[in-house]
Write a structure and sequence with these properties.
Length: 298
């Protein structure tokens, strides 16, 4: 340990001003460096910043800059090939050609979506889903551990519009109606309990429920819970509680429940995978937990 370099006096400035000092090119790389500063008013020197019980200041000098990231994807390749669809995730492999990066910052269609950690620019596999049909642009920036940013890269790929919905209930039937029609053939639903049509809706009219016993119910299952699926609904609650907005119920277990918790936050629930029993005569059969069957709009 010892003093390696001392700067000359900086130009004079008024009290409270910010001072900057260029460092010499001889600063060693990847080495813990301590530094201190003291002030001179033209007559006297003040103490060093590390004097007494003061905490020392240290830094590591690392001028390495990440290279331009490389991005590849089998599910969503470049070159004008239409693949997948909106909401259908694909794998993207990202790496730093210079082997420097400690993280990648990802932006999809001008929206920052994720920060991905790495070590020495190692390749990372990221799953991303297109947010729009047609051209999607994934921008990647690589940063070193010292905060140095390399050149960014834009990866453009084409996504299909996605599959049509299995069923869509607009719930815009007139007041007094007892049936709800769907865009899917043969998938009508009947209104039961205290639920009524013709009330306030997000667009036009909607289905009103009292939160006690009222729902619109389809006699056919609409979702295959063994595969990926998406459900959504517009709801305007007058109060919060553990209630369902959408559900596909069964005798013992719901395939899914989409609702609102007492704090007003959306909640999606689905049963855990069914456990497998070992071929052991002395073992007990797996048990099935029973979740409450909520009334909801299907």
């Amino acid at each position: 340990w010892g003093e390696k370099w001392t700067s000359a006096l900086t130009p004079a400035k008024t009290t409270g001003s910010r001072f900057e000092q260029p460092l010499p090119p001889t600063i060693p790389q990847g080495t813990k460096i301590g530094w201190g500063v003291r002030a001179w008013d033209g007559e006297q020197w003040g103490p060093w910043s590390y004097s007494g019980a003061q905490t020392g200041c240290y830094f590591y000098y690392d001028p390495a800059i990440p290279g331009k990231p490389t991005v590849t994807s089998q599910e969503y390749p470049k070159g004008g090939v239409w693949r997948g669809g909106v909401g259908e995730a694909g794998r993207f492999v990202i790496s730093d050609s210079q082997g420097v990066a400690s993280r990648y910052e990802l932006t999809l269609n001008s929206v920052a979506i994720r920060s991905v950690a790495t070590t020495n620019g190692a390749a990372q596999v990221v799953e991303l889903a297109p947010t729009r049909s047609g051209p999607n642009v994934l921008e990647v920036e690589a940063f070193s551990a010292a905060g140095q940013k390399g050149a960014s890269v834009s990866y453009e790929f084409l996504a299909n519009a996605g599959a049509d919905p299995v069923a869509r209930f607009t719930l815009d039937e007139g007041a007094g109606s007892t049936a709800v029609t769907s865009t899917g053939p043969g998938l009508s639903a009947s209104v039961a309990g205290s639920a009524t049509l013709g009330g306030e809706g997000k667009h036009g009219t909607g289905l009103s429920m009292d939160g006690v016993y009222g729902f619109a119910e389809s006699t056919l299952p609409l979702v295959d819970p063994t595969k990926s699926f998406t459900v959504s609904a517009w709801a305007k609650p007058t109060q919060y509680g553990m209630v369902n907005i959408l559900a596909q119920n069964s005798t013992f277990q719901s395939a899914f429940q989409l609702g609102i918790d007492p704090a007003g936050m959306p909640v999606f629930k689905s049963p855990p995978p069914t456990p497998t029993a070992e071929a052991d005569p002395g073992s007990r059969p797996p048990t099935m937990s029973r979740s409450p069957s909520g009334n909801g709009v299907t």
